[in-house]
Amino acid sequence: MPEAPVLAQLDLELRNLRKRFGSFVAVDGVSLQIAKGQFVCLLGPSGCGKTTTLRCIAGLEEPDDGDILIGGREVTRDAPWQRDIAMMFQDFALFPHMSVAKQVGFGLEMLKRPKAEVARRVAEVLKAFEITPFADRKPASLSGGQKQRVALARAMITEPRLLLLDEPIGALDYSLRETVMIELKALQRRTGISFIWVTHDQNEAFSLGDHVVVMNHAKIEQQGSPEDILQRPRTPFVAGFVQGNNVFRGTIAGMVRDQALVRTALGEFEVPLLGAVPTLGSAASFSVRAERLRPTPEAAWHNRMTLTCQTVEYFGSVRRYILARPDGEVIKLDQFGAEPAYLRVGEEAVLGWRTEDGMLHEGAPA
Ligand SMILES: Nc1ncnc2c1ncn2[C@@H]1O[C@H](COP(=O)(O)OP(=O)(O)OP(=O)(O)O)[C@@H](O)[C@H]1O
């Protein structure tokens, strides 16, 4: 059994957090435990409640119900500056009339630290973020990447326990994003401060996060390591939301030992039973990742179907085949890009997969 996290060592805990705007429920019973020094990504489609959750943690929204603990201390009704957090927004929210040095020192001045200490720390932080040459400049004269460094320096100077980031690289050019992501990940590791990073971009979430929290319709659908979520999606929503899954819908037609037989429009497939045993005849869905399918299944594999290759996309590291399903949907098959191609457009293939590569979902499919 996995060890329960030691509560005093949690950087953040949310207990059954709820937030309504009028009759609209934006956050619906969100519970979360974040150990020390984690890079956490809140991932989900637009409007699923990520930003509202983050704003509740920051103290910018008051939850209707539930508790927020930071570093083991209950802060649900505390003001933002009493929470040992800092925030960084997509537009960086820099003060337009303040010099870079002044805004970087702002947090320490608010905490009424002695002038000499503020000056020393500002000099250190400007140097660490390589923005010393801009110390006297106003934000308007800085590039996007420079503004971002200033915003980060301003957030990090108080050495908060949590840094809350809302789509922090959304405003940067694509060419800059990868470099900034590498820098931010290194900064998080170096400082040991937990980052809570809101994004709707799964590449960002899976490449940065130690822990990814997938939200949909105000609730957490699944949380875990990137590998957990990519390889073992537990709900039809997560399977459909993350890239690379083939989702099958049908009904439970039988159960043998530790396997369910799922009847779909494409045939009957065996899927391992992991959790609760489903009712015979109930609606069910499962997924198989595109790289788990094979164009020449072994004789012993039960799961197979004959389809025609519609398109081949080549991404360098991966070759992706799109095969037409009779129900109008498609099947994705991925192959390592350096290998000779499996199939050509128009070619028919028998695709198959090992039973253990199917993932039966919890809850009925939509
Ligand atoms: N102050 C508010 N008043 C009314 N409704 C709000 C308010 N703030 C957020 N909402 C609604 O709550 C829902 C969740 O919003 P939230 O900003 O948390 O979503 P999100 O997942 O961060 O989305 P996005 O990625 O688009 O920012 C949305 O439907 C939004 O319209």
Structure description:
With 366 residues, the chain is α+β, with helices and mostly antiparallel strands. It folds into two domains: 7-231, P-loop containing nucleotide triphosphate hydrolases (Rossmann fold, 3-Layer(aba) Sandwich), CATH 3.40.50; 236-360, Nucleic acid-binding proteins (OB fold (Dihydrolipoamide Acetyltransferase, E2P)). 23% of the residues lie in helices and 36% in strands. It contains eight helices and 19 strands. It has helices at residues 50-58, 100-110, 115-128, 144-156, 174-191, 202-208, 226-231, 236-241; strands at residues 10-21, 24-35, 39-43, 65-70, 73-74, 85-88, 162-166, 194-199, 211-216, 219-224, 245-256, 259-264, 267-272, 283-289, 303-314, 318-324, 330-336, 348-353, 358-360. Strands 6-7-8-3-9-10 form a six-stranded mixed β-sheet, with helices on both faces. Helix 2 crosses helix 3 (115-128) and helix 2 (100-110) packs parallel to helix 4 (144-156). The longest helix is centred in the middle third of the chain and has 18 residues, at 174-191. It is elongated. 37% of the residues are buried. The structure holds adenosine-5'-triphosphate. Residues 21, 24, 26, 44, 46-52, 200 line the site of adenosine-5'-triphosphate.
